[in-house]
């Protein structure tokens, strides 16, 4: 009797399985199996995509502060870039990057790329009105034709590296005319060409400075 019952139960289970396979869509079975396999798996936690900040800062400036980022050139392919409050003042995209020291002045709606003309650069700086920011970055070489009187003028703006600049040094600098910038912001960096260490053959790696400037200063 027990054996007959076991055989009957087995045949019934087989028959029910056959009917299930015939009448239930294959997609439903596949989905059900997949859902069973997912039971017990730990949920995958994905970090949210970070919000883009002005001038590609890692963290936002406080309300009422202006973001700036100055990137020197690196070789022939990576051109200098100057950004202020998320606006590219000088960049490859704008087509206004020149060989030499590129300068953008904020607070007078004027932008320039001062190629190899030291005298023109001095005039441009002197004509900048008080209350202006001057943002500078080298592309290729900014030292060969830079005369001492131009170096002295940039030194008077607060540069501590301008007299150390060598052939194809990467240099970035921000200065204020007629007011003082906070002591705790990045104002200047320099990276000299060294054939043993250069990232781009005859050119050193690009450098950058960035920070936030209180809006009440400008």
Automatic annotation (TrEMBL):
One of its GO terms (cellular component) is extracellular region. One of its GO terms (molecular function) is carbohydrate binding. Residues 99-178 form the ILEI/PANDER domain. The keyword Secreted applies. It comes from the Eukaryota. Keywords: Disulfide bond, Lectin, Secreted, Signal. Belongs to the FAM3 family. This is FAM3B protein. It comes from Ciccaba nigrolineata. The lineage of its organism: Eukaryota, Metazoa, Chordata, Craniata, Vertebrata. The gene is Fam3b.
């Amino acid at each position: 009797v027990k054996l007959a019952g076991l055989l009957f139960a087995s045949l019934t289970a087989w028959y029910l399985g056959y009917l299930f396979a015939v009448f239930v869509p294959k997609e439903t079975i596949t989905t059900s199996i997949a859902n069973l396999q997912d039971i017990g798996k730990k949920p995958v936690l994905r970090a949210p995509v970070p919000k883009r900040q002005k001038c590609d800062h890692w963290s936002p400036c406080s309300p009422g502060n202006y973001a700036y980022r100055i990137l020197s050139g690196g070789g022939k392919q990576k051109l200098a870039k100057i950004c202020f409050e998320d606006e590219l003042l000088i960049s490859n995209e704008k087509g206004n990057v020149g060989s030499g020291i590129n300068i953008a002045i904020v607070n007078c709606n004027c932008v320039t790329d001062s190629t190899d003309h030291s005298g023109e650069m001095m005039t441009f700086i002197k004509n900048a009105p008080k209350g202006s920011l001057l943002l500078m970055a080298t592309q290729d070489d900014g030292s060969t034709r830079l005369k001492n009187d131009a170096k002295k003028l940039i030194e008077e703006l607060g540069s501590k590296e301008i007299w150390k600049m060598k052939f194809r040094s990467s240099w970035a600098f921000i200065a204020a005319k007629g007011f003082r910038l906070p002591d705790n912001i990045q104002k200047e960096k320099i990276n000299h060409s060294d054939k043993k260490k250069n990232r781009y053959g005859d050119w050193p790696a690009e450098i950058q400075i960035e920070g936030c400037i209180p809006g009440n200063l400008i």
